[in-house]
Amino acid sequence: MRDSPGRFAGRRRAGAWGRHGLLLAFALAVFAGPAVAVSIKDLKRLKETGHCAKCYLRGAELAGAQLAGADLRDTVFYEADLRGANLRKGNLSKSDLGRAVLMRADLTGAKLRGVDLSRADLLRAELVMADLSGANLGRADLIEANLVAADLSGADLSGANLSKAILFDPYWGAAKGLTQGQLDQACGDAETRLPRGLTLRPCE
After folding, report:
1. Whole-prediction pTM
2. d(Cα 168, Cα 189) in Å, to the nearest integer?
3. Is the pLDDT of residue 27 over 80?
4. For the chain, which domains are there?
């Protein structure tokens, strides 16, 4: 949080803030907090360069954006609209995509290591060969998502909706929160390797 103007001004000067000054400082602190909307500066940078590592793009309207190969590491996309976006081979490692809308987004070959996708909408998203190692997919909507050969090692899938998801040979190494009930709604093939004790029906 930003230092208050009176911090280095001495007691006498600080007292001049009075009641109204304190209310103003509180208001500024609230509006400078983490709930602030998308950074216009960062959004402009993304649109001009196609890259935006460590940016603040909370709630950004980026539906259909062409961001193939983009460097988007450590970026806040919380509640952003990325439906239909082209993020093929993009690097979004350690980014915050909680509650983001990624319906039909193309994340083929994307680097999503350690990303937060909790409660994200990934309906029919393309995640072929995506690196989701260590990702948080808790309660994410993965209905009809394509996870062929995706790396889910160490990923948290607690409560994720895998209804009609395509799971041809993903790598599950130490994935957490995966249950038989979730897999009963998905499908794979004979080559799909599963954690011990779990089964998967073949896709028709």
Report:
1. 0.81
2. 6
3. no
4. 1-33 (no CATH), 37-204 (2.160.20.80)
